[in-house]
Write a sequence for this structure.
């Protein structure tokens, strides 16, 4: 399978040898420890009205649950940058397979690596920090993440299309990602915002719902029927949006070919 | 096999082609001759559909090149002038397997079929070496092989002899002469022989 070679690429880029794997593990551990000590210093206020009543759990689970979602958003442009960098982009454009399919497979390999790191982080939380996650809550969490993936990948394709046309904007895109994380309730609940603003977030950001549902699963170890219905509706809308995003991608490639300039991204 | 009709193309301040036409039948070979920046690579990219033409028409085996025809893509085999065109962290063999999957072909069979091209520029060593550690000659040999392994009807080789030693160059030339595919190639030096048609660019 074509996917196999993208997985090897991802493995060699991120996990070549034990030192690289241990380094990534160490970074995860430091990240978690940062939230742990931050939670010790900053006493959680009554803003934390969810069952996870400590800042530590709120922030770490928020960060972890957003990892895959945010990666889905950036993976399209990241993979296109990789292809442009190693010179395979043009070769993939003139292959007998549609470019979006090749991109999707390369994104899948990127997301698998992120999934793996999230699992490792969750295991650190479970065994080192004695957080009582169950196998069922782990599984349900990933199931919900999969249901949200089409929509997040679609947004990623649309963002990547803009990058192909503009050939710049990766820094701005990174900032947008951080803002999305902040406002969707990764580090603190959206109830901290003025009511009007938090209502807008609840309507516009799929990340908000993704976080709410996954936190609920980790907290209660079950997926409520309302949450399942909401996740399925995001999945259905996401599939529709994904097809629209393919059109965006095709349009941007056509525009790029008319530009007569090589695909080199600047900041 | 290849029809370029009244092609006009320009970069912002420079007209590269004006009413340029070219016709090529199966088995014919065309050598694009011209100075640096004359438009040899541009013509190859236009034929591939990597750049869209402004005026005129390009047809490959009767199919119009509009930059999105997947059936037409299968008929093309490109070896670009750029040194890098493979995934850095994969070995030569893994890279060829990746592209073989894309074209849905049996790589082992093709390695036997195009054996002469596997004797070019340390090809066998390139198969075992991560691409980013390959020498320029090894990279070129992989690129040439990839461009022909799916049996394209039109081969586009941009500077196929760059970084290739004399012995390998002779093997490539011998293969080109015998090939049943139409071949368009460019080179900075004139190639000896009368087995190709020379087209002046620029």
């Amino acid at each position: 399978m074509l996917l196999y070679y993208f997985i090897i690429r991802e493995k060699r880029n991120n996990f070549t040898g034990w030192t690289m794997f241990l380094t990534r593990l160490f970074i995860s551990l430091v990240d978690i420890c940062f939230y742990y000590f931050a939670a010790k210093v900053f006493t959680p206020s009554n803003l934390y009205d969810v069952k996870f009543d400590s800042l530590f759990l709120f922030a770490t689970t928020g960060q972890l649950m957003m990892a895959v979602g945010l990666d889905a958003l950036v993976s399209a442009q990241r993979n296109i940058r990789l292809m442009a960098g190693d010179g395979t982009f043009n070769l993939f454009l003139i292959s007998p397979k549609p470019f979006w399919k090749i991109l999707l497979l390369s994104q899948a390999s990127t997301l698998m690596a992120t999934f793996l790191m999230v699992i490792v982080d969750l295991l650190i939380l479970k065994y080192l920090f004695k957080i009582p996650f169950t196998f069922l809550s782990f599984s349900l969490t990933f199931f919900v993440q999969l249901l949200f993936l089409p929509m997040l990948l679609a947004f990623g394709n649309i963002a990547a299309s803009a990058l192909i046309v503009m050939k710049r904007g990766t820094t701005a895109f990174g900032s947008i990602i951080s803002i999305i994380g902040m406002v969707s309730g990764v580090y603190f609940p959206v109830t901290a915002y003025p009511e009007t603003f938090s209502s807008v977030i609840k309507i516009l950001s799929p990340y908000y719902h993704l976080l709410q549902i996954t936190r609920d699963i980790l907290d209660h170890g079950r997926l409520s029927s309302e949450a399942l219905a909401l996740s399925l509706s995001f999945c259905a809308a996401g599939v529709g949006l994904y097809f629209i995003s393919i059109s965006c991608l095709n349009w941007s490639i056509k525009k790029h070919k008319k530009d007569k300039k090589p695909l080199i991204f600047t900041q | 096999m290849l029809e370029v009709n009244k092609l006009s193309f320009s970069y912002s301040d420079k007209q590269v082609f004006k009413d340029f036409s070219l016709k090529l039948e199966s088995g014919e070979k065309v050598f694009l001759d011209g100075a640096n920046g004359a438009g040899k690579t541009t013509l190859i990219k236009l034929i591939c559909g990597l750049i869209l033409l402004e005026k005129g028409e390009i047809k490959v085996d009767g199919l119009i090149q509009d930059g999105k025809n997947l059936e037409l893509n299968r008929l093309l085999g490109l070896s670009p002038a750029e040194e890098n065109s493979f995934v850095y962290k994969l070995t030569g063999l893994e890279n060829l397997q990746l592209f073989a999957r894309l074209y849905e072909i049996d790589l082992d069979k093709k390695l036997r079929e195009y054996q002469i091209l596997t004797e070019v520029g340390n090809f066998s060593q390139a198969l075992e070496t991560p691409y980013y550690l390959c020498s320029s000659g090894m990279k070129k040999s992989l690129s040439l092989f990839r461009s022909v392994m799916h049996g394209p009807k039109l081969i586009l080789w941009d500077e196929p002899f760059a970084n290739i030693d004399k012995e390998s160059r002779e093997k490539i030339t011998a293969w080109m002469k015998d090939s049943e595919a139409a071949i368009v190639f460019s080179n900075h030096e004139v190639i000896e022989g009368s087995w190709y048609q020379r087209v002046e660019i620029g």
In short: Residues 2-200 of chain B form a domain with the Rossmann fold fold (CATH 3.40.50.300). Chain B has a mean pLDDT of 90. Chain B touches chain A at residues 11, 48-52, 67-68, 70-71, 73-74, 76, 78, 80, 82-90, 94, 97-99, 101-103, 130-131 (CB under 8 Å). Chain B has one domain: 2-200.
